[in-house]
């Protein structure tokens, strides 16, 4: 088939008696049995053997009668022909019965073939429907997975925001504690510590070191 053919069912080149669907661009996986014409009932054939046997018997009987004179029933030829005619009629009747039985069997087989073709078509239709449902289910699964991924991304973003909001600010720098005030019992101790003279505001300054009250002790 030419590749420019319109979409439809065409003979499958790989499987005799099967058709494959062409979507207009490429072959698909959809197949179906090729439609078969319903077998026609064969007409009952004229029982030629029976007719021929009767005709031959009648001819022989006429010949025998013609040559037997006034009493043909006593002629040996008449008797022989009569016996042969009876045998021929019996054989023709048996043949007719066998032919009728064979035709009935053929009709039954034709009906079975038609039923099998219908069942096969039903199976193909069911498989096509199942494939369509599976495709739809796969598409729904992909959509659900995408939605789940989006929700996880949003949840992560919310958790990040909550973490940044709830995290406490770093504590403010505390002023360093001042060194403990020194104490000098007298100016000798201050001089020994290398702190003399001790001015007002310096560690260890005290009135007992500044006797003149000028703000400088141990001058």
Automatic annotation (TrEMBL):
<feature type="region of interest" description="Disordered">
    <location>
        <begin position="194"/>
        <end position="219"/>
    </location>
</feature>
<feature type="compositionally biased region" description="Basic and acidic residues">
    <location>
        <begin position="135"/>
        <end position="153"/>
    </location>
</feature>
<feature type="region of interest" description="Disordered">
    <location>
        <begin position="132"/>
        <end position="182"/>
    </location>
</feature>
<keyword id="KW-0812">Transmembrane</keyword>
<protein>
    <recommendedName>
        <fullName>Excalibur calcium-binding domain-containing protein</fullName>
    </recommendedName>
</protein>
<keyword id="KW-0472">Membrane</keyword>
<keyword id="KW-1133">Transmembrane helix</keyword>
<dbReference type="Pfam" id="PF05901">
    <property type="entry name" value="Excalibur"/>
</dbReference>
<dbReference type="InterPro" id="IPR018929">
    <property type="entry name" value="DUF2510"/>
</dbReference>
<feature type="transmembrane region" description="Helical">
    <location>
        <begin position="48"/>
        <end position="69"/>
    </location>
</feature>
<feature type="coiled-coil region">
    <location>
        <begin position="85"/>
        <end position="119"/>
    </location>
</feature>
<feature type="compositionally biased region" description="Basic and acidic residues">
    <location>
        <begin position="205"/>
        <end position="219"/>
    </location>
</feature>
<dbReference type="InterPro" id="IPR008613">
    <property type="entry name" value="Excalibur_Ca-bd_domain"/>
</dbReference>
<dbReference type="Pfam" id="PF10708">
    <property type="entry name" value="DUF2510"/>
</dbReference>
<feature type="domain" description="Excalibur calcium-binding">
    <location>
        <begin position="183"/>
        <end position="219"/>
    </location>
</feature>
<keyword id="KW-0175">Coiled coil</keyword>
């Amino acid at each position: 088939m030419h590749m420019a053919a319109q979409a439809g069912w065409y003979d499958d080149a790989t499987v005799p008696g099967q058709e494959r669907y062409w979507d207009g661009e490429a072959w698909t996986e959809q197949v179906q049995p090729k439609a078969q014409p319903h077998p026609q009932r064969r007409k009952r054939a004229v029982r030629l053997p029976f007719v021929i046997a009767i005709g031959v018997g009648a001819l022989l009987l006429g010949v025998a009668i013609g040559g037997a004179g006034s009493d043909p029933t006593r002629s040996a030829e008449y008797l022989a022909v009569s016996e042969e005619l009876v045998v021929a009629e019996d054989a023709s009747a048996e043949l007719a019965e066998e032919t009728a039985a064979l035709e009935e069997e053929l009709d039954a087989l034709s009906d079975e073939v038609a039923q099998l073709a219908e069942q096969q078509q039903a199976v193909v239709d069911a498989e096509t429907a199942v494939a369509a449902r599976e495709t739809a289910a796969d598409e729904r699964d992909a959509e659900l997975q995408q939605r789940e991924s989006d929700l996880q991304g949003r949840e992560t973003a919310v958790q990040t925001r909550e973490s940044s909001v709830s995290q406490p600010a770093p504590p403010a720098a505390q002023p360093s504690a001042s060194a403990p005030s020194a104490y000098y019992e007298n100016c000798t101790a201050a001089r020994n510590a290398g702190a003399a003279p001790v001015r007002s505001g310096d560690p260890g300054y005290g009135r007992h070191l500044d006797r003149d009250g000028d703000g400088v002790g141990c001058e």
